[in-house]
Write a structure and sequence with these properties.
single chain; 210 residues; alpha+beta; C8orf32 fold; eight-stranded antiparallel β-sheet; 7 helices; 35% helix; globular
């Protein structure tokens, strides 16, 4: 799985830059911002492919098979324009979480694949695919892209790698998680240990609070 492999690569990479600047915390871990995005080709590919994919389909009149997921997604986001930011966050989380969880090996025949929203809406996906669609949905609604990050972490309860979307909102960091129905503050989540996160222009590594 890409998440696990990248986790190992990030850990090795960051041993040489451990003395870098430290900013806010997440789940009680210190956040260390970085700027070398070249080590995340999967993520950069998603951003590039999304520009090409983010075009509504043509004829949506067919009754037997829904082939208008992008058009419906755009309509869903358009209908929320007048809602509060908090309600938009809640509804985007709910909307994405209705999709079925499916492993990349079953979906694409490879160990790991980061999907665009269009691919996710058509084919469902795994944890990072939920997070990507939530991030790009909120961006389309006008949220600051740099206020959001996809966080790759360890679920210490289940002892598995996982990914969620974290968004800075009114002085707090809210977590949008495909495993949890509600959007909650990171301060109330104790079983997640963040490893790294990516936003559009930067990434961060994490260290436990001393």
């Amino acid at each position: 799985m890409f998440i696990r492999k990248k986790w190992i690569a990030i850990t090795a990479c960051c041993l040489s830059i451990i003395s870098g600047s430290v900013s806010a915390n997440l789940f009680g871990y210190k956040e260390m911002p970085r700027s070398n995005m070249g080590i995340f080709p999967q993520w950069l590919s998603v951003l590039e492919r999304n520009i090409k994919d983010n075009v509504p389909e043509g004829d949506c009149s067919g009754r037997l098979l829904n082939t208008c997921h992008v058009r419906n997604w755009h309509r869903f986001l358009g209908e929320m324009a007048a809602l509060s930011r908090k309600e938009q966050i809640r509804r985007v989380n709910e909307y994405a979480n209705t999709k079925k969880y499916i492993l990349d090996i079953e979906n694409y025949g490879i160990e790991d694949y980061w999907a665009t929203p269009k691919q996710f809406l058509y084919r469902n996906g795994d944890c990072e695919d939920y997070a990507i669609t939530k991030m790009l949905s909120l961006k389309r609604l006008g949220f600051d892209a740099e206020a959001m990050k996809i966080v790759v972490l360890q679920d210490t309860n289940l002892k598995i790698a996982h990914a969620v979307l974290a968004i800075n909102y009114q002085g707090d960091t809210l977590i949008m998680d495909n495993q949890v129905e509600q959007v909650v503050s990171h301060k109330y989540i104790y079983h997640y240990a963040p490893i790294y996160s990516v936003s559009e222009k930067n990434w961060c590594m994490y260290l436990p609070e001393q």
